[in-house]
Amino acid sequence: MLYTYHKRNGAHGSKQTVKVSRIVLSLALVIGVAVTTVLPVAAETYGGGSVSSYAADAPIDNGRIVLLTGEQSNRVKIATQKDVNNMFGVVVDRTQLPLSVTNEGIENETFVAVSGTYNVLVSNQEGSINAGDYLTLSSLNGVAMRVGEEEVTVFGRANGNFNDSSVSLGTTTLKDSAGGTKTVKLGSVPVTIDIKTNPNHKSTDVNAPEFLKRVGEAVADKEVNPIRIYIGVAIAVISLIAAIAVLYAGIRSGVISIGRNPMSKKSIFRAILEVILTAALILIIGLFAVYLLLKL
From 120's CA, which of 136, 201, 245, 257 has a CA 20 to 30 Å away? Predict the structure, then answer.
C-alpha cells in the first residue's frame, strides 16, 4: 500500500509538473508576442524620418521650426509666421538621435528633421492642443500652434496633448491687432512632421471660374490672382462694347449720309473705314491692357 501510494503521488506530481511547464510556456509565448508587438509601436512613437545637419548664423533651440536659407540652401534660420509656406523642418537634439555624425567645419551645426516624429515647441495661442490636431506656425518665431480654418499650410500632427494641466516651459504676452494683450503658455509636444496644405482650410479668397483661370494662366504663363482675372474681363468687355458702339454709330451715320447725298459715297466710305479702324484700335488697346494686367 505504501508503494502504491507513492507511485500515485509521483504520477500526480508529474502531471502537475507538466501543467506548470505548459503554463510557463504559454506565458512566455504571450509575453513574447506582446513584446514584439509593442516594441515596434514604441519605436515609431518618436524619431525616424530624415535628419540632416545644416549651418546657422546662431545656435537654435531644439524644437524650433526652421526654414532653409543661403545661396545653396545649406543653412537654416528660425521660421516666422510670414514664412509659413516655406517651413522646412524642426531642430532636434542630436543626443536623442540613434546615430549622428558631426562636422566641426559647419558653423553652429544644427540637426534638422524634415520627417518623422520629434518634439516641437508649441503655444496655446489658438487654444489647447490634442493628439491628432494639425499644427502650424504661431505668432512666436519657430513655435507651433493648433491650426484653424484660415491657415493654409500645416507643419504636422500632434502626437500628444498640451493644455492648462501640461508642463509649461514658460509664458509670454502677445499683442493682437486691436491693441489688446494675451498671455500664452509655451510647451513641447511630439509632432509627426508632414508639411502640406491644411485639410481644414476654408478659403475666403475670391475664386474665378475654372475656364477663366485656364485662359488667364495661358496668357500670363503663370498662376493669376482671381481679382486680376475679373478686372481683365471687365476691361475686355468695356473695350468690346466701346468698339461696337463706335462701329455701329459710324456705319449708321454713313448709310444715312449716302441716302441723303449719293454723290458723296467716296468720302463717306472713307469715313466709315476710319470708324472701323478706330473701333479696332479701341479693341486692341483694351486687349493689350488685359495682357499687361495678367502678365505683370
Answer: 201
